[in-house]
Fold these 4 entries.
Entry 1:
Amino acid sequence: MFFNVKKIVFSVCIFFVSFQIFSQAGKPDALRLYNEGHFKEAIAVCEGELEVNPRNIESYVVLCWSLIKNKQYWECEQKATAARKINSYDVRLIEVLGEAKFYLQKYDESMAMFQRYIANAGENGSRVGEVYYFMGEIYILQGKFQHADISFSAAVRNSPQRAYWWSRLGYAKEKTSDWKNAVIAYDQALKIDATQYDAVTGRKRCLPHLQ
C-alpha cells in the first residue's frame, strides 16, 4: 500500500513537471519570432503579454522593435512613450523611440533621444552604430555636414561592414569639399559592395576635384 502511494505521488509529480515543460515549450516566443522576421506575429504575442502584465518592459521592447520593422512608426512612438512612463531609463526604449521619431520626421525629438542614448549607453551600447548612423542622417538633412561626418565616422567605426554607411560618410565628406577622404570612404563602400550605387556616383563626382 505504501509502495502504491509513493508510485502515485511520483507519477503525479512527473505529470505536472511534464505539463509545465510542455506549456513553456508551447508558449510563443516573441523575441524568437522577431529574430526570425515574423514581425506581425511578434506584435500579436507582445500585445497578449501586455494584456496579462501591462508593466512588462521586455514585452514593450520587443513590441516596439517589431513595430519599427513592420513600419508602424506612429504605433511604436505611442507604445515606447507609454513604456517609458514605467521605466524612463531603459536605453532600448530610448533608442527605439528615437528611430520612431526619425521615421515620423520629428528630427529634433529624434536627435534628443539618440543623444540621450549615447549619454546613457556609452560607446559600448548594442545599438550605438545605428544611433550614430541616424544622427548622421539628421545632420545631413539639417545641412550640418561636419557634424554628419563625425557621426557617420563613428557609425562605420562601430560597424565597418556597412557599405551604405561608408557611402553616406563619403557624401558628408564630399559636402565639406574633403574630396580625398570622400573618395577613400566611397572606395571602402565599394570594397564591401561593388554595386553600391551612391558610392559609384559619388566617387565619379569627387575624382575631377583631385586632378
Entry 2:
Amino acid sequence: MYEDYYRFSAKPFQLNPDPRFFYGSKGHKRAMAYLDYGLSLGEGFIVITGEVGAGKTTLVRNLFRQLETHNLVAAQLVSTQLDAEDTLRSVAASFGLEHEGLTKSALLKNLEDFLTAATRQGKRALLVVDEAQNLTPRAVEELRMLSNFQNNERSLIQTFLLGQPEFRGILQSPDMQQLRQRVVASYHLGPLDADETRGYIEHRLRTVGWQGMPGFDDEAFAALHRFTGGIPRRLNTTCDRLLLFGFLEEKTHFGEAEVNEVIADLKNEIAHQDFHGVTGVNNHGAAGSVLQNEDTVRLAQRLDQVERSVNRILPIVRKILYTVSERHAAADEDGVPPDSDATH
C-alpha cells in the first residue's frame, strides 16, 4: 500500500524472516562468527539464544544463504513438545528421508546410512533446531545420541540449537550434563542498542530503494528504540505501522510526535494491551458482582481508546476502497479485467 507512495520496491519491514534484510549488528556479527566457527569444526553443538523476535531465525536464513560455499547438507527443524521417537522422525523428515510408520531402529538405520553416504560424497550434515527451549529431556538425548554417529573418529552430523533465553537455564539442569560436554560454543543474542536501531531501520529502508524519503528526526529514532527495546521484530511491526500512518496522512518526514501517535495506537490494540485488574468479579469472587470503581473507569478508558483507534482506521479503509474503485473504473474504460497485468 505505502510502497508506491514512498517508491519502495517492496515492504521494508515485513515480519517473515528474509536474509536479504540481514543486518550485521555487533551481536549478530558475533553470533554469525560462532556459527562459522562451528561449521569449521564440523562437530558438536552450537547454542544461540535470544529474546523472541531478536533475529535468530533470520540469522539461520542468512547462514543457509552462505552454505553454497560449503560442502554441506543442511536441514532445519522447528522444535515442539516431541517425544524421543517423534524427534527422530522429524529429523529424518527434515533431511527428506522416509519416516512414516518406521520403528525407532529403522529410523536410526536410515539416518546413519544417509549420513554415511553424505560423508562418502565429501559432504557434512548440519541440523539446525529452532525453538530448542521446547525440547524435552528425552528429545535432547536423542539429538545427542545422533552425534555418536562417527566415521574415522569424526562426527557425521553437527547440530545448532537456537532457543529463547530460558534454554540457557535448561542447559544448566543436571540431566543436560552430557549435552553440555558437547557444546563447543554458545552465544546470547541481545537487543540492538540505540545506534544499531537506527542503522537497522535505515538498512532495511535502503534495501528496498529508500533515498531519504520519508525522513526521520533523531528524536524519532530514539522514540522507536525506547518503545521496541531494540528487538528487531518489534521494530518491524512499529515501523510498518509508522509508514502506513505516513501514507494515510501524506507525510514525508517523521518526528517524535508522529512516532508517539503510532505507538499510542499500537498500545490500544489487543496485542499490546495489559488487561490486569479488569475483571468481571469482585475481590470476593461472588458471581454476578459488579466491577469495582477503578475497573469501571479503566474499562471506560479502554472503550474510548478503541473508539479512537477505529476512527483512525476508517480513513485507511476508505482510501483502500477508493484506490480499488479507481482501478476498476480505469479498467472498465480500457475494457481490461482489473486483475490482469495491464492494470499494474
Entry 3:
Amino acid sequence: MKNFLPISVAVLAVCVVILFVLQFKNNGSSSNSLGVNTKDSSGFRPLRVAYVDLDSIQEKFVYYKSKMIEFEKKKELADRDLNSAYQQIQNEGKAFQQRGNSITQAEGEAFQRDYTRKMQNLEEQKRIFEGQIQEEGIRTMDDLRKRMNDFLLDFNKKEKYSYIFSYSSGLNVMFYKDTTYNITNQVAAGLNDAYNKSKK
C-alpha cells in the first residue's frame, strides 16, 4: 500500500489548505457546526469528512489478500528454483575440485569460465524475476487503487462525504482521528462484494 502514501500526503495537504482558506474566508458569515460553508448546486450543506484505514483494507479486502498469497507463492517457487540452480553449480564445483591434481590448467580455466557464466546467468534470472514481481506489484496496486476509487465514487453518491481521507500507520499525517468517521468496514465490505460479483 506504499503507493498510496505520496497521493495521501498530497491530497491531505491540499485539503488542509482549503479548510483553512474556507474557515477564514467565511469567518463572520453564517456557517455550519464545523464553521465551514461548502456550497454545491443544491445550496449549502455541512462539510462531511470520513477516512479509510488502509492497514485494515489490506487485512479485510479479499482481492488484496489473494494477490499477496499469489505473490508469496511465486516468490517461494522462484527462490526454490534459484537456490536449486545455485546448489547444482556449487556441487559441480565441488566435484571438479575433488579431481585434485589430475586437473590440467586448460581444464581449470575452462571450468572457471563456465562457472562464472553460470553464476552470471543465475544473477540475471534473479534480476528478471524481481523486475517481473515489481511490475506485477505495480499493476496490482494500480488495480487496487482503481477498484477503491470506483467503489468510493459510487459509495459517495449516497453518503455525500465532502472528503474521504486515507490513513495508514506508516504515515502519521492524521494527528487525530475520531473513529465515528471510520468507514473502513463499509468500504471493505463493499469492495469484497464488488470483487465477488466480478468473479462470477
Entry 4:
Amino acid sequence: MDNKTHCIVLRTVKYGDNKLIVDFLTRDEGRLSAVWKISKSKNAKVHRQFFQPLTILEADFTRTPRQQMATLTDARLAETYSSLPFDSTKLSVAFFIAEFLLHTTRDQHGDTMLYDFVEQSLLWLDTTSRGIANFHLMFMMRMSRFLGFHPDMESFSPGCVFDMREGIFCSHVPIHQDFLLPQEAEKMLTLMRMTPANLHLYVMSRTERNRITDIALRFYGIHIPDFGEMKSLAILREL
C-alpha cells in the first residue's frame, strides 16, 4: 500500500542506530506510526529537522500486508512556520498541544474535519500576534466536538452544576463525584465560547488559567480511557 497525505508530526523515538519511529496525525488515515531511516547524505531530501513536534508535512508512506508499521519513503514541508519555533511562549503551548494530540488521537482513524481543524489551529497560532496564553484551553474544548463529547451549551442555566460524565449542565447534583459546582460550571461555558476571533478578550490570572486547564484535562480523562499524564503541563503552568 502506498499513500501520500498531509500529516502533523506528534513524536519521534530513536529506533536502533539509524532509524526513527515517528508518530503522525494524518489527514487520510488518522494516527499513523512510521519508520524512517536516517540519511547522513548532504543531498538527502528528507531531513531530521522535519520531525520536530507539530511540523506539517506532505509525506509518502508505504506498507505491505505483513508490516505492522508503515515506512516513510519521502516527505516535504507542506507549511512553513514563521514564528512558532522562535517564540518561547508559542513553543511552550506547541509542546503541550503535541502531547495532548498524542493522548487524544491514539485510536483515531481518518477524519479530515478533525485534521483540518488541528492544522488550521496551528497555522493560526503561528501567525497571530495577539495574546495566546489561553490558546490551549480554546483548542481543547473545540476539539471535543470532533471526539464526540463536546459539552451541551444549550443545557446551561445560571446556578446549575456541570455533569462531566454526561457533558450537560443540570439543576441537581449527580450521584457520582465527576461534576462541577456552579462557579466552575460557568467556567466551562466560558471555555466553549472562546474562538480565535475573541480569544484575546479573555483575561485570566495564571492561577485561574491553571485551574481551568486542570478541569479541562479532567474532563478529557473521564471520556478517554488511559488518557495518561501530561508531562508538558509543568511548562505550561508558567505562562
